[in-house]
Amino acid sequence: MSAPLPELLARGAVVAPAAGRTRARSGWARGLRLWLPAGFLILMLAACFIWPNIYPVPNPVRGNVLEAGLPPLSPGHVFGTDPVGNDVLSRILYGGQVSFEVGFAVTAIGLVIGSLLGVTAAYWGGAVDAVISRVLDVLIAFPALVLALVIAEGLGPSEVHDIWALAVFSIPAFGRIARGATIELRERTFMLAARLSGTRRSRMILRHVAPNIMPQLMTFSLLGFGVVIILEGALSFLGLGIPLPEASWGSMIAQGQQTLSASPYLVLIPSAFLFATVLSLNLLGDALRERWAV
């Protein structure tokens, strides 16, 4: 026998708000997972590219001479100075410029060239797919850091050479993502209908393929951005990245190792910024993937 109507209404009055609160908490948590890393990255970009132009931080490379070896929280030097007299905050900001510039350039090159190769291989198929796929497989199978080291050593240390060295690693990764997503789309009903209606291949790619694979590529771009920053730091750490006296987070960590016992902050501070930036990129990529999947 069913419960009386007042009891059912009472139950509904209890259950509905609880469900609403659960959805509200879920939406709030999803928004926090998205905007917290995004906010940190925006602050980092503003600090690295805008703040030095508004309030130039002292840097001996740009004509300022400072007292060497000042500890963190010294007057006028939040992170102190290194044994050469460089302001650590200054080098963090200029090193962040290098990391973001290299990361953006490498990711853009990989996204454009890799996506074109992947879509071409998947859409045309046959011999075209076989040749492009084998080339991508060879590049992916080769250790990325070793390949970047060989290219950087051959070309010499510079930001532009680092970009091209790391782009060789980035292109096949984007190519495989684009190829797999395009193959999945190729047999969809709307693609078959467009093909039967006589739509040109170029129009189908621009109108149907590109918009549908772009969310996957953009999510992977953020994850790849973080990997590129780590690889750029590794090259600089090994002396094959940005040449001194210009700053790079990797070269700062390498230089800080020489005085690690006496001044551990020279390693911990750039390592913390590198870790926080890469973590934020990964969290932002995961949040966007969840949002676009809904």
Descriptive keywords:
76% helix, mainly alpha
Distance between the termini: 40 Å
Radius of gyration: 25 Å
Shape: elongated
Q: Please state the structural category.
A: mainly alpha
Mean pLDDT: 78
Helicity, as a percent range: over 70%
Strand content: under 5%
Question: From the structure provided, what is the oligomeric state, counting identical versus distinct chains?
Answer: single chain
How many strands, what sense, and barrel or not for the largest sheet? none
* Total number of helices: 10
Indicate the low-confidence ranges by residue numbers.
8-16
How do the helices and strands follow one another from N- to C-terminus?
HHHHHHHHHH
Total number of beta strands: 0
Tell me what you see in this structure.
- The protein has 294 residues and is an all-alpha fold.
- The chain has helices at 5-49, 51-54, 88-124, 126-141, 144-155, 159-186, 189-196, 201-237, 249-256, 265-293.
- The two termini are 40 Å apart.
- Residues 8-16 have low confidence and may be disordered.
